[in-house]
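Review form for a predicted model. The reviewer records the input and the model, then writes brief findings.
Reviewer: anonymous (R2)
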Amino acid sequence: METIVQIAQLLLALSILVGIHEAGHMLAARFFGMKVEKFFIGFPPKVFSFKKGDTEYGLGAIPLGGFVKISGMIDESMDKEQMKQEPQPWEFRSKPAWQRLIVMLGGIIVNVIAGIIAFVILTYNQGEAYIPAKFTKEYGVVAGEIAQEVGFQTGDKVIMVNGADYDRFGDIASGETLLTTDGYWTVDRNGQQLDLPIPKGFLNNLSDEEFQSKFLEPRQPSIVGGLQEGFNIPLQEGDKILQANGVEVKYFDQLRSEMANYAGQNVAFLIERNGQEMTVNLDVNEETQIGIALSSPYEIDEYTLAEAIPRGTSKAFGAVILNAKAMGKMFKFNGEMSARNMSGPIGIVNMFPKTWDWNAFWGITGFISMVLAFMNLLPIPALDGGHVMFLLFEMVSGKAPSDQFLENAQKVGMVILLLLMVFVFGNDILKLFGI
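Model under review:
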């Protein structure tokens, strides 16, 4: 059932994004007097369609994209018969290059606008929840297996990232941090400063779905934030747990580790309450729990609408910039970042939560919208960016490429996209089997 919910979210997101992308092309074409013959969400075979005016609207069975067919345009339909006829005033090829350029950019522009709107609204409605850097600067980190492989130890205090100060725990492993050339973390280990370089190939760890839990967690003091129902214990909110049976457990990772030794037992705890130390006895259940919830480490920055607009816009374009940097590292073929990190629809499904959450849905949809805009702008024939590339050449040189050249370029682009789809689907399938 959880997988079905994730798939449903992906299909809805793609339908919305493909719909507005193709609508961007269609509206721009109509604005300049071009005839739009077809508007489809999804690829053939056709599920259903209807005609309104000159345009056939329809739904395809393969929900991985969509298309508009503009009269007189060399596209994936490869309608050679139409291109043999004399150009008509309402056709794409009859219009000035600058108008055709706007039509080709229409879908990308709409995707960018949609992504920005999603980020702005979520920033305004939710604010930004984060863990302050004081947890990792003052209390240190809990090092998982991936962190230990690069030299971290539990208790290390991360004092700088890439030689600079930082404000949030998330900055330690943000895309900007990890994509920096010759990046490193500076830690304080028992009073001694050490630089831990980000090793070559470290970015490949990001493909591990459990990366966050295997890398670093902020070290949290064992401060009671609340009591769970079903437990009758003499603790209060704000109590600091210092020792269990004489063993120091002032941090939660220490407490969690020590409780594993006392399942089903009654244990004496030393706590601090209002500056006074006292001993209380607590029952540890068979699941090694004592019935407390820790004080939350999260803080929330709230934004007015005026503040959310630049902040949300910055986050939207930041997603594009990070993806561009990641793609650049993939194509260096130096092992710094493997193309195995690329994901197709199967991998993207896992981005969505397993229960329906509209805030999460719109956040992920906004992110995908920005990535789709970037991918469509790549100068590959058959993508919008390929058409833009040829139109810019025409505008600069004053001479348009021949129809035969454009047809052959379209074929090459379609082969490239097909091979790319096979590659990312293969990646997703191999990951499903842990390969």
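Findings: The mean pLDDT is 89.
Further findings: The chain has three domains: 1-127+348-433, 129-218, 223-294.
Recommendation: see findings above.
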